[in-house]
């Protein structure tokens, strides 16, 4: 059986199919790129209806990336999925503190999740401007509390935890925090979705001279 082997042609063909099946939905150029990349990752066209962007989300996210910021993620999978070469060209980096011994110690002593403990630790690093949460609703709830307490002020929150307990609610709550956000309504989301959103923003950045 003959089949396409060139990865560039496979990706190009995939995006052509996605664009054709999406049709005219009225998305802005970069918003459309974000949604198409999520669909490319998930093969799920419902994301065109459930992905929500704060009016300043794209501008704020690209400004933060252009400044060479750190991105905090709640999973190693998000870290693995982000294009580190593109991020590195902008001077940026990725951090995850969930598996740090300090996070485990805090979680054990206070009876909270490691994701919550790690989020508190991350709040102390002012160079983290983007938070990408794809797994733990508790991390997103904690981030909202830290924002409201004035401890942290992200440029952008990508809030797409997946699951049945707290996921949908955490995404609705982060929308009330007063910072730019990109979320997926309801139970759907995940680490691959979070990475896809970051990559879509990275690929939309203007080339540096």
UniProtKB/TrEMBL annotation:
The keyword ATP-binding does not apply. Coiled coil: none annotated. The gene is cbiC. The keyword Zinc-finger does not apply. Pfam families: CbiC. One of its GO terms (molecular function) is precorrin-8X methylmutase activity. SUPFAM superfamilies: Precorrin-8X methylmutase CbiC/CobH. Signal peptide: none annotated. Keywords: Cobalamin biosynthesis, Isomerase, Plasmid. This is Precorrin-8X methylmutase CbiC. Belongs to the CobH/CbiC family. GO terms for biological process: cobalamin biosynthetic process. Residues 10-203 form the Cobalamin biosynthesis precorrin-8X methylmutase CobH/CbiC domain. The lineage of its organism: Bacteria, Bacillati, Bacillota, Clostridia, Peptostreptococcales.
């Amino acid at each position: 059986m003959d089949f396409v082997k060139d990865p560039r042609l496979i990706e190009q063909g995939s995006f052509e199919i996605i664009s054709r099946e999406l049709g005219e939905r009225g998305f802005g150029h970069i918003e459309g790129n974000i949604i198409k990349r999520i669909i490319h990752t998930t093969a799920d066209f419902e994301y065109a209806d459930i992905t929500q962007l704060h009016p300043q989300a794209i501008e704020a996210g690209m400004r933060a990336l252009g400044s060479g910021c750190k991105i905090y993620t709640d999973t190693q999978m998000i870290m693995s999925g982000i294009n580190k070469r593109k991020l590195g060209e902008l001077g940026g980096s990725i951090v995850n503190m969930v598996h740090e011994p300090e996070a485990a110690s805090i979680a054990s002593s206070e009876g909270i999740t490691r994701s919550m403990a790690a989020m508190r630790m991350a709040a102390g690093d002012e160079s983290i401007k983007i938070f990408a949460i794809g797994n733990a609703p508790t991390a997103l709830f904690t981030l909202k509390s830290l924002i409201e307490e004035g401890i942290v002020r992200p440029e952008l929150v990508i809030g797409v935890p997946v699951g049945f307990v707290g996921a949908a609610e955490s995404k609705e709550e982060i929308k009330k925090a007063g910072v730019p956000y990109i979320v997926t309504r309801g139970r759907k989301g995940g680490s691959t979705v979070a990475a896809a959103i970051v990559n879509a923003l990275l690929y939309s950045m203007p080339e540096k001279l």
